[in-house]
Design goal:
four-stranded mixed β-sheet; 15 strands; Aspartate Aminotransferase, domain 2; 2 domains; seven-stranded mixed β-sheet; 16% strand; alpha/beta; Aspartate Aminotransferase, domain 1
Length: 457
């Protein structure tokens, strides 16, 4: 039994039927590349799960983890450590204005679990407003706040009561059926309506730029309007920067592009550049002060684990030393231009959108109608997904790209070179022929059906 078959037989693959799960065996990684057991090298064009922002094998981060392991690998969270102090000081230099106190967990999912509990305890209210095109994690509270179809499979057991969903800021396929020129920010105004008529709302949770569900970049007035609405109603605003933070969009955190000051910030992934599993929940001083005299009813064994906190300060120093925030802006402009050039050559690409080094190619059967090649329903029914065929082809060409239902997410490490951008885009250019063939096939079927139809009277 080879290693891929062994892993498929004895370990679970996530978010999939287990039949056919034969994961590629990876043995090494460095820079923007990783290598499989056969020695084949792959360009990491999505930073794994949009988390390896510093690339692979950054020595400064590795050294910080190794030194911590030698000095103090674990102590109960009731004590403090040098790692805890240094990580906190480093975070305070870069997080959005007003975020002053932190709870440390081990994933973005857990960061969002903590955020919900904090919001409910602080406000004394119950309901959480999320959006349909969202992903906030896999455990009970986090999956309940997730709008995408992964939530469907665990309802109603194991889910959190009191979550309601509002419309997305998706100008390509507006959930309210508006064209961008006539929409205004109806999607934000609808949240105002929801808060008024739902009642008992503790918080609104949003990804400032939606991640897995399509790299949806909001209009410039959307998040400021949402912040205004939540403040007007005394509702907390939770900003989920698990994927969009850490220089990914050309700012330390995506919400900073619009000057947003959240009440609660959640993040993970790039905080350690994925070298260690850390989740962070940050709150304002007002929230922190509430818990001076009220029970902070949360915690777990690995909270503030020194081994996962050790790389935080090192990673932040590397982001600064390499000037990666500004670099993400500059390289992102080049990547966006290259991707828009691809779209001009490929009829299957309906929309190209992104910010910094965070981009999506969204597929369509018809640019006029914006009908997607595949839908959520197709995914849940187990139908063949064009995106999956495209990502398989890309992998055969030595380029790894993350795909989800009807779009590709292009988000290379922030250290990516222009030559590597060209390499990835060239592979995309070739692989998109698969999606184009699907468009031509559908168009041909429509033409044949029209020619076979009887003439109208």
């Amino acid at each position: 039994m080879d290693t891929s078959e062994f892993s498929g037989r004895h370990t679970y693959g996530t978010w999939r039927k287990q039949a056919g799960f034969r994961p590629l065996h990876i043995v090494a990684a460095e820079g923007c590349r990783f290598t499989d057991a056969s020695g084949k090298s792959y360009l990491d064009f999505s930073s794994q799960l949009i988390c390896s922002n510093l690339g692979h094998k950054n020595q400064a981060v590795i050294d910080a983890i190794c030194e911590q392991a030698k000095r103090l690998p674990y102590v109960t969270p009731g004590f403090t450590t040098d790692a805890r102090i240094e990580a906190t000081r480093a975070l305070l230099e870069v997080v959005p204005k007003g975020i002053e106190k932190f709870f440390y967990s081990t994933s973005g999912t857990e960061a969002n679990e903590a955020a919900v509990k904090i919001a409910r305890l602080y406000t004394g209210k119950h309901k959480i407003i999320s959006r349909y095109k969202s992903y906030h994690g896999a455990t009970a509270a986090a999956i309940s706040m997730t709008g995408d179809p992964r939530r469907w499979l665990v309802e109603p057991a194991g889910t959190l009561h009191g979550v309601v969903f509002g419309p997305d800021c998706d100008c390509y396929r507006c959930p309210l059926g508006r064209e961008p020129t006539s929409c205004g920010i109806a999607c934000a105004d609808y949240v105002d309506y929801m808060i008024k008529h739902e009642g008992n709302v503790a918080a609104v949770i949003v990804e400032p730029i939606v991640g897995t569900n399509g790299v949806l970049v909001p209009t410039d007035d959307y998040l400021p309007k949402l912040r205004e609405i939540t403040r007007k109603h005394g509702v907390l605003l939770i900003i989920d920067e698990v994927m969009s933070g850490w220089g990914r969009t050309g700012a330390w955190f995506a919400c900073q592009h619009w000057g947003i000051e959240p009440d609660i910030l959640t993040t993970a992934k790039g905080v350690t550049a994925a070298y260690a599993p850390l989740g962070v929940t940050g709150t304002t001083r007002a929230i922190a002060d509430y818990f001076e005299e009220h029970m902070f009813a949360h915690g777990h064994t690995y909270e503030a684990h020194p081994l996962v906190l050790a790389p935080v300060a090192a990673a932040i120093r590397e982001y600064k030393r390499l000037d990666l925030i500004e670099r993400a802006k500059a390289m992102g402009e080049k990547l966006g231009e290259k991707l828009r050039g691809l779209a001009m050559r490929h009829p299957s690409v309906g929309d190209v959108r992104g910010k910094g080094l965070f981009w999506a190619l969204d597929f369509t059967r018809d640019r006029a109608t914006r009908e997607p090649l595949n839908t959520v329903g197709d995914k849940m029914a187990g139908k063949p997904i064009v995106v999956d065929a495209v990502t398989r082809d890309l992998l055969s060409r030595g380029v790894y790209v993350m795909g989800w239902i009807n779009h590709l997410i292009i988000a290379p490490p922030l250290i990516v070179t222009e030559a590597e951008l060209d390499e990835g885009v060239a592979a995309l250019d070739a692989a998109l022929g698969i999606a184009d063939a699907e468009v031509r096939n559908v168009s041909g079927q429509a033409v044949r059906a029209a020619s076979a139809a009887p003439a109208g009277r």
